[in-house]
């Protein structure tokens, strides 16, 4: 009787863990679908709190039957995340310049980021039992874009054409406010679906590969169409094209240097996927070309960047309403978004030595940090997430975040995992997103912590699985 109960208990725990894991995956899917949608803060808070409570139960049960000591250095990314959150709290008590505002952010943005980290870790571990369930994440984001299309198409049909970029007043009537939200989600959609496709290729399951391939094409076309024709975002086109082009080049190099590369190319299946990839590249090029034709900023981007980083010589960025925009070497007025973003980021980087531990506030880091060097500064942020985070919480914070991301990417390259290419793609794209994307909305930071913790959880689960298999083999 005792033997039966000893055998049954782990099985019951395993089934219980699987059920909790499925609930976490569903909660995360809904959360990702609404995270950047306007007027959803109450629902997001409910999902984060509920998800965190379930995550704590899940993690307790999981480590009851799995050894936490098996994790080793694989846990470094999540340790960095925890220390970064502790540093934010430490900063409030010892380095705060505006305690009232900082406390308000601690109770809102940072609390939600901490909850998102716990949820991300547990969900990452849960996904290891059912890797294909990660498709729900990208499907949830894709559905958000379908809603955007449904809102946009009537406007396009009224005008008699399908290319009707939204202006700043239109965004108030739609699912997402501003360009930054659909840009973030669209790039994540392309990166996630690209990783899904590559992991399907790596797994070698033909039926699943066919589904992943079709899904990837739908995600790519949806996001790129939105970038080029609805939102009109250069950053989206650039970052959305990056994983497609980068992995295509990697595949070509691999085929030519690998011994079996040429023989692989002779198969009918390989040719079909090459045709599909060529189609995706052509369509991506068409969207990029259309966006370049409509946005003159591409044509003078190098000249505008040269003007933008000379922040002392061209101080217009400090108050463009007062000074206007400068002209570049060709005598043309600079494209305002290129010039301002480069100038703001340059001013922010130059201000970091004056505040190596950060000013402690997310909503106006540039306005506080740059006033010693640039007394007339009026912009409140740099439009670069990494620069803003460094200005807000200093060099220690940004080093922890970059170490977490670098550790995830390094281990993804070395580790055998059903999420190998998803992890590599997401780690690179998240770095790029926060290099050119702003922190104007707190949910962007919450999503960053969630994805870092999610990827850390995937790697922790893979490490524990490998450790368990090696122990069983030794026996």
TrEMBL record:
Q: Which domain of life is it from?
A: Bacteria
Alphabetized UniProt keyword annotations? Membrane, Transmembrane, Transmembrane helix
Segments spanning the bilayer are: 12-35, 41-63, 70-94, 109-128, 135-153, 183-201, 208-231, 237-257, 273-292, 389-409, 421-441
Q: What is this protein called?
A: O-antigen polymerase
- The organism is Polynucleobacter campilacus
Q: Answer yes or no on keyword Ribosomal protein.
A: no
